[in-house]
TrEMBL record:
Gene Ontology MF terms in the entry: ATP binding; transferase activity
Superkingdom per UniProt: Bacteria
One BP term from GO: tRNA processing
Residues that, per the record, bind ATP: G34, L35, S36, D40, V66, G137, D142
Region listing for Disordered, in residue ranges: 260-292
InterPro entries named in the record: Rossmann-like_a/b/a_fold (IPR014729), TilS/TtcA_N (IPR011063), tRNA_thiolation_TtcA_Ctu1 (IPR035107)
Residue ranges annotated for the tRNA(Ile)-lysidine/2-thiocytidine synthase N-terminal domain, each copy included: 31-191
CDD domains named in the record: TtcA-like (cd24138)
Matching PANTHER family: AMINOTRAN_5 DOMAIN-CONTAINING PROTEIN, SULFURTRANSFERASE-RELATED
Gene: ttcA
Keywords per UniProt: ATP-binding, Nucleotide-binding, Transferase
Name of the protein described by the UniProt record: tRNA 2-thiocytidine biosynthesis protein TtcA
Lineage: Bacteria, Pseudomonadati, Acidobacteriota, Vicinamibacteria, Vicinamibacterales
Organism in which the protein naturally occurs: Luteitalea pratensis
Gene3D superfamilies: HUPs
Pfam families given in the database record: ATP_bind_3 (PF01171)
Length: 292
């Protein structure tokens, strides 16, 4: 079956490579795609649909949108677009927006807290849906930006895992777009006429000052020295532990190695540890919101 465009062929190849290299999608997987309605998760859902029709082994896909409860959020648009394409979609209505309003000080950047609350909801739904993998739409630029955020502001040398097993071993989070650039995801979502909608929270699209600055920096450097981004990607695949100063990586230093707990660390650059996580009540998944 031919691809719809050279762009689609290129993205499919990158996703297939990521999948093979990091064991992302495996035979008989039920992949639950976190669908925000933004360009990246739309691009992910579309390409998994394309790959699913060509893969040498069977896997199924279900999309889940976590509605934070903001009144203007266009979940109907997301649902209709999926229905039109024959994609399995579930919209989960939550009170995340309300909880955020209660927990955050007026000037805080809410995105990392919101992401943590959403992750809890996605874990629960994955169990209900019998999903073996939870796929998120983070792309190459997200990996690089997170690497630099951690380096410049977090005092750690880390990006994000392409495949993460949760602490309790019950969930596997995957990021199949790791080799796909943000620009490719945007062009693909637009070419496929997928309806891009914002989450409608008061900080929607607000990246935070540090990330914005790094985006500009990387953009400028890439223009001056094309290839910088691929070099950074290569760097996180080509780590030389003995040329770093982390004593836990030195096999002779047994004392330092004990006590190193990696935890369910997903590479988020900004700590939200100050916020205790409330238990989210479900506000309903009506039959009307669920289609197959
Ligand atoms: N409301 C949501 N419901 C389900 N999954 C979500 C939701 N919001 C985000 N996600 C998942 O988490 C990923 C990262 O979220 P983030 O808010 O950083 O979005 P993003 O980088 O702008 O991507 P997108 O363009 O998909 O919104 C998304 O790509 C998506 O897979």
């Amino acid at each position: 079956m031919p691809y719809a465009s050279p762009l689609e062929a290129r993205i499919a190849k990158k996703v297939a490579r990521a999948s093979i290299e990091h064991s992302l999608i495996e035979p008989n997987d039920r992949v639950m795609v976190g669908l925000s309605g933004g360009k990246d998760s739309w691009a992910l859902l579309q390409i998994l649909d394309v790959i699913g029709k060509r893969a040498p082994f069977p896997f199924t896909v279900v999309a889940v949108n976590v509605d934070s409860g903001y009144k203007d959020f266009k979940h109907g648009v997301i649902k209709r677009a999926c229905e039109d394409r024959g994609w399995d979609i579930r919209i989960e209505h939550t009170e995340i927006g309300e909880v955020m309003d209660d927990l955050l000080e007026a000037n805080a950047t809410p995105c990392s807290l919101c992401a943590r609350l959403r992750r809890g909801v996605l874990y629960r739904i994955a169990e209900e849906e019998g999903a073996t993998k939870i796929a998120l739409g983070h792309h190459l630029d997200d990996f690089i930006e997170t690497l630099l955020l951690n380096l410049f502001f977090g005092g750690a040398l880390k990006a994000m895992p392409a495949r993460l097993v949760s602490d309790d071993q019950r969930h596997v989070v995957i990021r199949p777009l790791v080799y796909v650039s943000e620009q490719e995801a945007l062009e693909y979502a637009m070419a496929c006429e997928l309806p891009i909608v914002g989450c409608c929270c008061p900080a929607c699209g607000d990246l935070g000052l540090q990330r914005q600055r790094l985006k500009r920096l990387i953009g400028d450097l890439e223009r001056e020295h094309p290839g910088i981004k691929s070099s950074m990607l290569k760097a996180i695949q080509n780590v030389h532990p003995r040329h770093l100063l982390d004593r836990r990586l030195n096999p002779l230093d047994v004392m330092a190695r004990t006590g190193h707990v990696d935890g369910d660390d997903d590479g988020e650059a900004v700590s939200t540890a100050a916020h205790p996580l409330p238990v989210l009540r479900r506000t309903g998944t009506s039959g009307a919101d669920r289609v197959s």
